[in-house]
What does this fold into?
Amino acid sequence: MEGTYIPEPEEELPGLNVSNSQGLLQWISSVDHKQIGILYLFLAVLFLLLGGAAALLMRIQLALPGSTFLSPEMYNQLFTMHGTTMIFLVLTPAILGFSVYIIPLMIGANDLAFPRMNAFGLWITFFGGLLLYFSFLAGGAPDAGWFNYAPLNQRQYSPGPGIDYYCAGLLLVGAGTVGTSINLVVTIIYFRVEGMTLGKMPVFVWMVLINSCLVVGAFPPLNAALSMLLLDRQLQSHFFNLMGGGSPIVWQHLFWSFGHPEVYILILPPFGMLSEVFQVYSRKPIFGYGFVVGSGIAIALLAFGVWVHHMFVTGLGNTVYNFFAASSMLIGVPTGIKIFNWIGTMWGGSLRFTTSMLFAIAFLVEFTIGGLSGVAFAVVPVDWQLTDSYFVVAHLHYVFVGGSLFGILAGLFYWFPKMSGHMISEKLGKWFFWLFTIGFNLTFFVHHILGIKGMPRRVYTYPDISGYSLLNLTSTIGAFLMGFSVLFLLYILRKSVKTGEKAPNDPWDAYTLEWITSSPPALKNFDRLPPVYSLRPLRDLKQSSQLQNHTDGINTNILPSKSDRGGSFEKNDN
Amino acid sequence: MENKLMMKMVIGTEAIFFIALMITYVYFSVTPGFNSASLRLLDIKTTGLFSVLLFLSSFTFWRAEVNFRQGNIQRLKLWMGLTILLGMVFLFGQGQEYWRLLHENFSISKDMFGTNFFTLTGFHSLHVFMGLILLTVILILILLGDFDDPGSTVISTAGIYWHFVDIVWMLVFLLVYVLPVLK
It folds into this structure.
């Protein structure tokens, strides 16, 4: 990459505000991985508010039986947009945001391998999201659910333009996600600091590497399905149209052979974040590094062999069901291994209960609940009983919110001082933790009961029978508590940026290289880097400089480097 | 090296995309609704000829790459131009096949074979077209004198994509044109 001109701002990065000489333009035109990472997070917040608003409108509608607050058509559009938004435009950008921000810092590089492709990925995701939301103005949002089953997605059942916007929007968002994932893989393979072999990479880097490969493998079936659907709707081809000889089942196969890896795409990077958080706040290295990484690889491989458990009611036959029931139970094993790894990391450690750590510990509980209800669906008769009921809604929210989002929030409270240069008040952070956790469980725990009682999902109202009303009202109250706590989080973050105390370089006494840089890091991440001998290079550095009685700060042992854009750091001869 | 790994991952993801389309084709081709009468509309001889020209473009690209590594920029221009020409001739062949089929009242909405045929070959042609844009940009840069460093990986990176497009066509041609004749 030598000699390549990168159109990068020359001035200092503006931190989290736009008040510099170039203003907003500096952010829009930036190709710096730190700014793009922050923009990804802003993107996630923007769509979190939109998707959250859709959820709250649904919960208002469901607060009382027989309510007419929303029309059935509007309700269909809202649950479709809520699911699509949260998966493609909130969790994915949040994960990519942390990945593009933290990965170069963790591996000792100064940027991603392809900075301009990184910017492209961000903006194509943003405009894909806008295109999806434009459907509201163009005559109706998509209304066939986030997995958009045929034949509901065909013209005769969904005559509005919503599904066309769904296809076009998701194709663009997917292009951005795949591009950024390829970028991350190349960066991790080629831009690691000298000495950081694969076996010495931090767990988060490993999980992002595995996850990016998973993205590259999982998105093409979705793109193929979306292209076929767009052709069906625009050029009257017959892929999913039974009348023309097509097959709705093909849509389900293609969608879920993307869709099931996708749920692991949304959980593996949070697994990595949690591994960092558990280590630092337990004052111990990760317990069973090889098992954490290996089980991640196992999950990624098995993820491609379990998709039919979403299709147990399609009548594919017992042979198929038995195979996929077995594989779906099998994939629970590597996930369980990780839970024990994290408990083992905390075992006998000197725990610090910061907000980040609280989210990590709560994750263990919530994700285990979600995991257990998930394993229940691997049992075919249980699936037949519970599929398309609120039990599914409970399960998927326990893994997406209790799993992915709790992991991301643990990562947010862990890395926020590094990204913004300011500390978050622990007192307010803990208020947020309790409000959010109580709100979340209040909202979704009752969904388990509703599902077992037989309340179907995706129906805009319900009759006043068998205790539905009280449980639904509880859920609505919990949802508003969650909504309030998200606004409270934004308030906390803003307050911290404005008036929070300045963050030192290494506020948590952490182990990995990103904490060497200033908070926030300068435009050029590293001038010098310590040699990497272990999983915890920063700890080694701190210990060796203690041995030398702090002769010259921590700079004594730092190697000179010649590279401007990361990668090839020179070996020190002396 | 970064360029090449990036391109290998791009074609990895594109390969899975085509595998998804081909599996769909095979899935529908064994269902009863698949109209074998439509299959006979295809002109295997003409398309076979154009296919050979596309495969030939992989050879000319290889010659271009060899000449580039040897610093022989004049020959590089020649072979690169020839590659682009062959790619364009192939696309012309696809165009005239489509034109003929549409005039015989055979379109994407006609039956399941039409749906699969136009989608599969259409997406392949789209990839050839994108490859041509890529190669044309490179040719313009060569003509402007930008490629004087034999260590550059740009041409070999583009080559990974161009050969990939050829291999995909080999499989699509076998699946759509050759196998029904053998049956």
About this structure: The domain at 2-182 of chain B is CATH 1.20.120.80 (Four Helix Bundle (Hemerythrin (Met), subunit A)). The CA atoms of residues 91 and 126 of chain B lie 9 Å apart. The mean pLDDT of chain B is 92. The two ends of chain B are 44 Å apart (CA to CA).
